[in-house]
Automatic annotation (TrEMBL):
It holds the Pfam family Glyco_hydro_65C. It comes from the Bacteria. Belongs to the glycosyl hydrolase 65 family. This is Glycoside hydrolase family 65 central catalytic. The keyword Hydrolase applies. Residues 772-786 have a biased composition (Basic and acidic residues). GO terms for biological process: carbohydrate metabolic process. The active site is at 488 (proton donor). Residues 327-680 form the Glycoside hydrolase family 65 central catalytic domain. Residues 689-750 form the Glycoside hydrolase family 65 C-terminal domain. Keywords: Hydrolase. Residues 749-786 are annotated as: Disordered. Substrate binds at residues 361-362, 592-593.
Length: 786
């Protein structure tokens, strides 16, 4: 197991007990706070040193040109990239003329703690300045789950042994300088366009800045208000200039005394509202936060999280690292989505600028399935966002000569932002991925109002796309040719099985939703004939099979290609896309990330148990996991076919992706899909959760070393608790009416009265599969790494 000294293993916290400058940028992502609307990287309060400063607002972006050496029809000309908005978290400290800067002087102690139960980031430092003054600084930061426009910081300074003059400068800073430039395509594009100042104001305890973006037409307001408690001898001064609003507090503080600053920060943005309206909006948000007060904000935060954990917690006995990692993961997934309110959930949440802040299929296939069963309201919100960009998706389909809607592969505001069409436009599966999320959200909540208003139009327009993209051939097969599936090392292939199964689900789900909402469907122009066509396409959907190898090919031709020369590929040549041209990769059997294996997870009943085992054995030696979206899926299937140790190894990789920086790019932001995937590896992998006929089924099995796994699931208005021990599993409802489910194929009814306990049947797995050389997942010791 890879060891990293940065964080201590604790059940409910991620704690860093020493400041490691080499992992500063990584810790800024790990310690990021967000509520889905505001995102603040875990930068030090004083701003420097930093890895990458970052304050983000969901959907605030700037445009940049997407240049092509050879332009072609339909290529997007303009890209969108997330921007670092006004930094409201800055509090600079001067101790007797000396700036508090931990690169100088002596650090006696430095600790940061992300508290997953209270939803706060704590910091405490004891430092002696180069001139010999010793101080203790403690700060607590939160981004409120209950007041979406609000972040707050409580900052305290105390002198240790001598009286001293202390100057605190609490600031709002726009257009911060960012120096980082990277060659990795997964990092952000550099946008040099500055925010334009419209208003700056500072008076009393208040400061405010309003700016607008140059190209994307967005206006951003940031305001701060303060409560100060300190010694009698204290002066407060406020000043502002176009990019800075500043409150300066000067005090003489004696040992035994403290100066305490509570800073409330409000953010607002709009593409429509005027400067005065944005001004008023942030001032109003501040006023509400001040009325709640610091203690009140802390209480609200804790209460919000108590409710969340009460229905979503996962408990593990026998592996404290995974215990910590899965709670860390759930916390960040919640942060990315909680108050997004009809805005997207980007691949990195709001923890960093990686992938330009874009939203991909990661959301619908990795993140939303977890939220569907833990925080369903966030799923409705995220899908509302898809609905809000439906018109753009329909327009794009027209441009591409197709019917219905084609959603962008990557975007912030709805327009396609990928300049590489073989792995974007051609990845049509994104459209059915959205349909998949709609179907499961409605299945888990019975939210028929949502289905009528939002789900139906999404299902209908995506079904229309499949019907126009595919074609029925002379043999009556419905084929979908020339598409790219999840495995981006194969492109423009015919009949990708994942895509075809997804399209089949999409077509059928649209027909069923039309039947449930005939009036709404009529308004969308749906005719009986059209529905018949969808159903016949679904019925005749071509799903290739390789009779010679007795496996399912990822796409029609895949198993006929030459196998990648793994023995000649060196360890440092992974990820392959940074070392080999796609033209080379596309011709070979090499799998970037689970594709057919993902199809087996999501469409479990479409494959027999024997076929799943054969397919898994076939794809393991070809799968290099050059994407963080792979390990969790491989964990799920490894567990299903009985390779429990391998499932455990993959679980470790998914769960520790960011805490251990396994992809070496956590500095750009956290991997939301992999974080969500750690829940999936546990619940769908070791818990064996699958969807079966609109209900849930379980087939739990623990690897050696894990003594207990318990998880909670919200389903059809109930909360179900599943507890798995080595020889048995029990099921109990924490609330709600009795529920039918399955345990290893056996029907059971669970209720609040008593737990239903069943033994776990043993499984005989085939020979353990081999991964490509150099790509075997790290072996996880029973009981977790010490
Ligand atoms: C993966 C995609 C994913 C994207 C963003 C790529 O490396 O291949 O499947 O959507 O990263 O996470």
């Amino acid at each position: 197991m890879i060891q990293h000294p940065a964080f201590k293993v604790e059940e409910w916290s991620v704690r860093e007990t020493k400041l490691h400058f080499d992992v500063l940028a990584q810790t800024e992502s790990i310690f990021a706070l967000s509520n889905g609307h505001i995102g603040l990287r875990g930068n030090l309060d004083e701003g420097e040193p930093h890895g990458l400063p970052g304050s983000y607002l969901n959907s605030v972006y700037e445009l940049h040109p997407l240049p092509y050496a050879e332009s072609a029809y339909g290529n997007p000309e303009s890209g969108q990239t997330i921007i670092n908005v006004t930094n409201g978290k800055l509090i600079r400290l001067n101790v007797e003329d000396e700036p508090f800067d931990i690169r100088y002087g002596t650090i006696h102690s430095h600790e940061r703690e992300l508290d997953l139960r209270n939803g706060i980031l704590r910091r405490s430092v004891c430092w002696t300045s180069p001139a010999g003054q010793t101080i203790k600084v403690t700060s607590t930061r939160l981004v409120s789950f209950t007041q979406r426009a609000i972040a707050a910081i409580n900052y305290e300074v105390e002198p240790i042994d001598t009286p001293m003059r202390i100057v605190l400068q609490s600031e709002l800073v726009a257009n911060e300088e960012i120096t980082s430039k990277q060659d990795d395509p997964r990092a952000a594009s550099t946008v040099t366009k500055k925010l334009i100042s419209e208003e700056n104001h500072a008076k009393g305890m208040l400061g405010l800045l309003v700016h607008h973006t140059q190209e994307s037409g967005l206006r951003i307001g940031t305001a701060m208000d303060h409560v100060i408690k300190g010694p009698e001898e204290m002066a407060v001064d406020a000043d502002s200039s176009p990019d800075i609003a500043r409150l300066t507090i000067t005090a003489k503080v004696k040992p035994g005394e403290k100066i305490r600053l509570t800073k409330y920060i409000a953010y607002g943005w709009s593409s429509l509202r005027s400067r005065p309206a944005i001004h008023d909006q942030v001032i109003a948000a501040l006023s509400a936060a001040r009325m709640t007060g610091w203690e009140g904000l802390l209480e609200e935060q804790r209460a919000y999280l108590d409710t969340f954990w009460g229905k979503a917690d996962v408990e593990i006995e026998g592996d404290p690292q995974i215990q910590q990692a899965v709670r860390f993961a759930l916390f960040h997934v919640l942060q990315a989505a909680a108050r997004g309110e009809r805005r997207p959930i980007p691949a990195k949440g709001l923890t960093g600028p990686g992938y330009d802040g874009h939203t991909f299929w990661d959301t619908e296939i990795f993140v939303l399935p977890v939220l569907t069963l833990t925080q369903p309201s966030a799923v409705a919100d995220a899908l509302y966002w898809r609905y809000s960009i439906l018109d753009q998706a329909c327009e794009r389909a027209r441009l591409l000569g197709l019917k219905g809607a084609t959603f962008p592969w990557r975007t912030i505001a709805g327009e396609e932002c990928s300049g590489y069409w073989p792995a974007s436009v051609a990845a049509f599966h994104i459209n059915a991925d959205i349909a998949y999320a709609v179907v499961h959200y409605v299945g888990a909540t019975n939210d028929l109002k949502f289905e009528e208003e939002v789900g139906l139009p999404l299902l209908v327009e995506t079904a229309r796309l499949w019907r126009s993209l595919g074609c029925e051939n002379a043999e009556g097969q419905f084929r979908i040719d020339g598409v790219t599936g999840p495995n981006e090392y194969s492109a423009l292939a015919d009949n990708n099985v994942y895509t075809n199964l997804m399209a089949q689900l999409n077509l059928r789900a649209a027909a069923e939703a039309v039947e449930r909402h005939p009036k709404a469907a009529h308004k969308l122009g749906v005719k009986d004939e059209e529905v018949k066509n969808w159903l016949s396409a679904a019925e005749n959907m071509f799903l290739p099979y390789d009779k010679r190898l007795k496996v399912t090919p990822q796409d029609e031709a895949f198993t006929k290609h030459e196998v990648w020369n793994f023995s000649q590929t060196k360890k440092d040549e992974y990820p392959l896309f940074l070392h080999y041209h796609y033209a080379h990769l596309y011709r070979k059997q090499v799998v970037k990330q689970a594709d057919l294996v993902l199809a087996m997870q999501l469409f479990s009943s479409a494959f027999s148990a024997e076929l799943k085992a054969r397919n898994f054995a076939y794809y393991e030696p070809l799968t290099v996991r050059d994407s963080s979206l792979s390990a969790s899926t491989q964990a799920v299937l490894a567990a299903e076919v009985g390779h429990l140790q391998l499932a455990y190894d993959y679980l470790g990789e998914a769960a520790l992706m960011d805490l251990y920086n396994l992809e070496h790019n956590t500095q750009d932001g956290l991997h939301m899909a992999s974080l969500a995937g750690s829940w999936t590896a546990l619940v769908a992998g070791l818990g064996g959760l699958r969807w079966q006929d609109g209900s849930l089924s379980f087939a739990p099995r623990l690897p050696e070393g894990l003594k207990r796994l318990a998880f909670r699931i919200r389903f059809k208005g109930r909360c179900l608790l599943v507890e798995i021990k080595p020889g048995e599993a029990s099921y109990r409802l924490l609330d709600g009416e009795p529920l039918k489910t399955w345990h290893h194929g056996q029907e059971i009814t669970v209720s609040t009265k008593e737990a239903t306990t069943r033994p776990i049947p043993s499984i005989k797995a085939g020979a353990p599969p081999k991964q490509p050389s150099e790509r075997t997942p790290a072996h996880r010791e029973p009981g977790g790494s010490k």
